[in-house]
Amino acid sequence: MKRMIIFVTVMLFFMGGILSFTSQVYGQSAKKVLMIPREGYSGDLDLMLKMEVGVMNLLLKRAGFQVDIATTSGFPIVGNTEKIPTLSRLVDIKLDDYVGVIMVCMGVGAFPGPPVSQEALAIVKKALADGKPVAASTWSTTILAEGGLLKGKKYAAAADPLKTTETRKITDLRYEGGIYSGVGVVQDGKIITSGACPTIEKAFGIPSKTVELTQAFIKEIGPK
């Protein structure tokens, strides 16, 4: 596993501008995956674009899947050195065209955070209703929680949202009924979650689970 993480990291550093052709694919693919990031992310945007969006994108493409990225506005997401220049609007997405949905940690912030995108929530609800897998990294599980989709489900997060800590004084009641199961990759039915993204790794030293989450998602959506 460590070799895989090192390989992906090296590939990303040597493949400059990987995000500039995010919606392309190595050859034609019969299966498409929808990726949902968040607009207005206030953290280390370059880190997340490179080491989460970029890593997920690379692994999915290497597995033979086309990756389409969509947000509420469809506007480009631009950091200091990294960018996603071409995106779709969530309202224009035809979910029947996709085999699954994957959400990066910047898909939403920890509580209280920014409002959850109602367009993203609608997509996720429909995907699960249609029996399609949904993967959520770290605090993008908030989208699942707001939709009541974690009730009775095991899930991962950087910390238990229903417990206060020195740095988080307010609990997030949207997670009530869910079963917090640590920071590793957790799968319950078609919902796959993880509790550590590159930002969590940088801030707290907890190794990012981006590779493991994406691999679990690829296993669930099946081979090309």
CATH superfamily: Class I glutamine amidotransferase (GATase) domain
Q: Please indicate the percent range of residues in DSSP E strands (runs of 2 or more).
A: 15-25%
Q: Give unreliable regions as ranges.
A: 5-18, 20-29
N-to-C SSE series?
A: HEHEEEEEHEHEEEEHH
Q: Report the biggest beta sheet as strand number plus sense, adding barrel if it closes.
A: 7 strands, mixed
Number of helices: 6
The percentage helix is 25-40%
Describe the structure.
This protein has a single domain (2-221), classed as Rossmann fold (3-Layer(aba) Sandwich), CATH 3.40.50.880. Helix content is 30%, strand content 16%. It contains six helices and eleven strands. It has helices spanning 2-14, 45-62, 118-129, 141-146, 198-204, 210-221, and strands at 32-36, 66-71, 77-78, 83-84, 88-89, 100-103, 134-137, 154-155, 179-180, 186-188, 191-194. A seven-stranded mixed β-sheet has the order 5-2-1-6-7-11-10, with helices on both faces. Strands 3-4 form a two-stranded antiparallel ribbon. Strands 8-9 form a two-stranded parallel ribbon. The longest helix has 18 residues, at 45-62. The protein starts with a helix and ends with a helix.
